[in-house]
Amino acid sequence: MKRFFDEELETFRSHLILMGETAVRQVQDAVKALVTGDIALADRVIAADDELDNFELQIDDEAIRYMNLRAPVATELRLVIVGMKASHDLERVGDEASNIAKRAVKLAALPPLKPYVDLPRMAAIAVEMLRAALDCLLHLEPDRAIAIVKRDSEVDQLNRQLYRELTSFMIENPATVSRALELMFISKSLERIADHASNIAEEMVFLAQARDIRHSEELKKTAVE
Amino acid sequence: MEPPRPAVPPVPLPARPVVAVGPPAAVAPPPVKLRVRSVNFFYGAKQALHSVSLDIPEKRVTAFIGPSGCGKSTLLRCFNRMNDLVDGARLEGTILLGGQDIHAPNLDVIELRKRVGMVFQKSNPFPKSIYENVAYGLRIAGVRQKSTLDTVVEKSLRGAALWDEAKDRLHESALGLSGGQQQRLCIARAIAVEPDVILMDEPCSALDPIATAKVEDLIHELKREFTIVIVTHNMQQAARCSDRTAFFYLGQLVEYSDTGTIFMNPANPQTEAYVSGRFG
After folding, report:
1. How far is A140 from chain B (nearest CA, A)?
2. What is the value of pTM for the model shown?
């Protein structure tokens, strides 16, 4: 039976999806600005971070109002709780994208240290993870969400690999230190973005099954593998 | 083969983000429909309301909440002078309906009750057909033309979300309807005479959850045309249905504010204790 306030929940869900799309676009644009040395694009990414901050405030506001006045239970309650947590993760994704864009501006003024291969690869995986996690908001698929969490280790692996490579650059040639450090921080930002995508995926499992898989042994084993 | 996806309806996305930046634009408050000033009410020697003042906005739902005996129903019944029928009842102060004093000596109480309809806790259809229940108010007002009555009966039953269930049995006894349907019939009867205000005294307390949900949704629809004042013991209902909420305790108006404020950040600790279910 449809209730007069159902639309409020659908608006809430739509805002969450729009916020997710915005966060994905921010990550893609930040990495594009880095690879192409496009300072104007980087500046746009930095300026657009406010958009995600506003989404977070609005989603929190809608969630609090819905919990306060509509007394949601079961799936509705889980959607509202998960929505608040996911919006916080997405806002942090936006912060990381903004950090990448700021470093892209600095690197654009310097000669490239190495071709950009690993960072775009990490970004592509992180974006895939984010997209798939957000898709679970529309189609409750816990197995798919768990698969997203497991992909986090791929990005961790690439981050460690890049860290080792950049360390050797710095040892061999101290003149590369400032550029290598910028790239290390960018790599760390992408690794964090994948962590946030992984968090959102865990939240989606809670949404679908009321099951909290955070810190579970099953996932820890996968991460070690 | 891909496994079937659970049936979650896709969410239609708006064309662009509709994120409001900063506080929402100020909206002019609706006009006041009922203005209550310094109302004291007595049942004989016992004082039931102590200097109550509040404004009921037009075309909004205002909920009165509070524990039993707090005076919320007494105040509701003051609005169409139902308390005149109680021996020893006495009111001090003023109540204005659209600026007109409802206790003015020249005021016709029958006219007042046409303008201020009422729906009670227990549905009370007349032992007549569904059609005659809805047409009753118009008939006693002298309307005889069948086409007019037919139009009003249909409009009112549609307005009360009962038309689809009742259209094929309009001339059957109203007492054959379910409890929830009977309550919606009483709402149809109330709106048939096109009142300004509809008073509802715990309209869902005798209904099951589905019938309650239907009446709540109906209240949400009715506020487009009518000013609604509802007394309820169900705090979730007050939170879901109303725009403004007044909390009464021991005959005093403790707090009156936007419903969101009453349930999120009430100013008075007694209100907080009541809406948290800690007393009452």
Report:
1. 7
2. 0.83
